[in-house]
Amino acid sequence: MPGSEMPAPCVFAPDMAEQVPLWHHYLLAIQSRESPRVQDYQRAENILLTVLERAHALDSRFIVDYSRDLEAFQFALRSSEDPLDVEVLLGVDSEALLIEESEASEPGDGPAICRLGVLKEASGLGPWMTDDIFSVSSEDRDKCSGHIIPGKVLCVLKDLLVAAIVHCKHHRLIPPGSLNAASLKGGQMRLSLQVSSGWRKIRFNVVPVVKKKHRVPALEGALLKLGFPEGILRRIASHGVDLVPANAQHWRISTGYLLSRLLDALGSLPGHRLDSLSILDRVNLESWRGGSQNHGLTFDHLKTVLLWASTLFPAPEDWADLQGSVYRQLVVLLCCLATRNLPHFLYPECNLLQDSGLDLGIIYQQVEHFASQPEESLRIHVTHLGHSRPPRIDNGVKALLQLPASDPTYWTTAYFDFLLDKFQVFNIQDKDRISAMQNIFQKTKTMGSENS
């Protein structure tokens, strides 16, 4: 490992203080676009809700979900144009349903896939036991009379959406040219619709959802309580889970709502958690994905990084400074890219980078370059050009970033404090944290000696 002595923790040098306004200029530029983006989103959402209301009128089993505040909140944070999920609730009594988890699920797959059975003793479920969405059980000894089949549900919903779009256009309930039934695409167990709002085109994924009371053990874990407002995890867990189609026969637990609630909770805390997420999402779009021309990290990837960073850095002082807040996410992101493992926040055994089709080596180089010399990506106007500063890190940092892959005990605040110091942005004065960070340095130094 490079270096023979643990340097004193880095404090802001004069040239680093000069670049603080650069971060704030970049953030202000993002925020200046927020209002028109949200207005475009709200217009597009109103168009889609009008169509969904007509679909409900045609088939009352499908219910419009008007509680969309979390989606608008996240759209305001984002610069990226990734599709947005819109849930269509199935108005079925979930207490009359039995979740039958599939034995085919493999460790590391994340939330288990399951079938949704209708209990034999259930009453009043006639509309949910029709051939268009239901399959009768062939086993007399089963607890269930049959199962609600997600593939069938999607087919019914698609036909409803087509009919609803045609009706709304014919009766001029939606603006001309805003939506076309031809844009309705099926795939990956969701229905994709592109809505025009002003000059912006917003793609929505329409997803049928069954809400069911079900435990999510991670929300009961002590680790998460460190980084979130008191009591919020219990309130989020009381929501239960959303079951969405996994394949033609099975459902799976969707964590989208739970993660969005956790992100919203972070916004209630003082500091720059959400500001730093907005900055990284913009940099990801413009620099790492080439203006959305390249396949790359998504907002959901970056959201997961922030959630992990919030538990690893639970102290308010960690998020008091904008630049430091960005780097707290960057060190976590770099570690995940170097080890090729971004754990799902609620199902850590599931790796969000596995089978993603991403060139993780290229993305790592882009993120490391930004972390080392962020100035060129933050300049939004010719007046922001200034002298180039030397790289903040040396070639040995990637070896340090790969340590959690071989030893998970490195996934601690002390280890990431050590990385922050490598990037010259560790400005915490807490003696216990400084001592723990120095212990990590000694551990890596000893390891380096043994390997040399």
TrEMBL record:
Residues 295-355 form the Mab-21-like HhH/H2TH-like domain. Gene3D superfamilies: 1.10.1410.40. Pfam families: Mab-21_C. It comes from the Eukaryota. PANTHER family: CELL FATE DETERMINING PROTEIN MAB21-RELATED (PTHR10656), PROTEIN MAB-21-LIKE 4 (PTHR10656:SF7). This is Mab-21 like 4.
